[in-house]
Structure formats: C-alpha cells, structure tokens
Amino acid sequence: MGGRLAKETVCKAEDKVTQPPEDIIAAEGDTVTLECTFESSYTTAQLNMLWYKQEVNGFPKYILRRGAYGDDNAPEFHKDRFDAQVNKKSVPLKIQKLQLSDSAVYYCALKPTVTGNSEILSPLSLMDNMSLMASFSRLFPGLIAETTISPEQDEVSGTEGQSVTLACNYMTDYEYVDLYWYKHHSDLQAPQFILWKRGKGGSSEHIPDKRKYGSQASATSTRLTIRELTLADTALYYCAVETQ
After folding, report:
1. pLDDT over 90 for what percent of the chain?
2. CATH 2.60.40.10 domain range(s) in the chain
3. Which of 44, 53, 105, 197 could covalently link to 205 via disulfide, CB atoms 3.0 to 4.6 Å apart?
C-alpha cells in the first residue's frame, strides 16, 4: 500500500533473525547461499521461516516458506532454482543458476504459528553489476490466483496531530483470512510489522501499539488508522492478506 505518511514494533527479545551484513557478488550461472540464523522461544515445529525478494523501489515479494505450515514456493520462484531447508537454528536460501534478474535485497522472516505474533524480518543484499527495473507485486504469502489485495488510494496525506485512515480492498475464496499492515521507512530497512487482524468478521487481533494504531476489517476490506500524526509517520505502508 502506498502512502505518504508510523512506531517501531518491539518484538520479543528472544525472537530474532540475523543475516550477515555484507553484500554478495557472484557471476551468472553460479550458485549462492544466503545465510540466515534465528533465535526463538518457540520450537522449530512451531515456526514458519520465510524468504522475500525486494527489487529497487519494489514491494517485498514472497519467495518461499518452510516450516510448520509445510513447504511452499511462489510460482515464479521455482524450487529447482530457489530452495531452503530449516536447520536447528538457520534457514539458508540457495539460489542456483544465477541470473541478472536475481539482483535484489533478500529478507528472511520468522513467523511463529501462534496467533497474533508478527513476522520478524532482516535484510541481506545480493548485488550484481547490472541495474534492474523496478518490479511491483501486490501478492503476499499465502496468496493464490483467486486471492488479491490492493490499496484504495496510492497516496494519503494528513495533518500533524490529527488522524488518518489507509484502506485496502481484498478478494478471496478462502474462509479464514488474516490481514496485516506493515510500515516501510526506506530500502535500507526491513518492513516493520504494525498489526494483525482476522478478516471476514473475525474478532482476533494483535496490535502492539493500540494508542497509535487502530484497525477495522470486513469481508472485503482492511483499514489502518494512524493517530496523532507526526513527521515520523511519513513512510510507505503495506497491506497484506494471508489465507489458510
């Protein structure tokens, strides 16, 4: 969701992911492995580990998931080129037969299966000498062909001290729907989790900072309200839908 308008998520101290800070440079046709280690208060059987790709000025694009909900690769990221295995404390991403289009920033994410916990993301850059065109995607983890989500407006403005509401509309054939909001300050930082809310009339939600943020959801839409606006709220906001 694009928006001109945000408080950082405070994740549980024992839940974190870590990636090496250095860039990786490789030649076309090579195989590279992007490292990601994690610590969690949950058991490996309770965790889902995810990888995302973000091209210049683009949305984070879901690559794959490994863990409690089973293994899954997004259609454009075939397992014969993009694969990962969850080890005791790591989930390295292997990319084979490198192409120039693989140049991007890659994020690994930890997501407990316990309802209401946010994804925790950490950035890693895979560099190449070729600059890329931006690629925008509105698909997020859990989406398939009949599930879509999009913002009502590309840009929203507000006045300091006042409130503003961002809205997205979604469509899905699934009965159980989870709706998420994220804030993204810059390409140098991972998107920050704001809140999670059950869609299609569900009442469950997880909003770490209820003083700052509020949300309403229906069978076809999700809304994020940001209160007491400050200049620090200026950012790009993402809405996401996950089906089960």
Report:
1. 18
2. 16-127, 148-243
3. 197
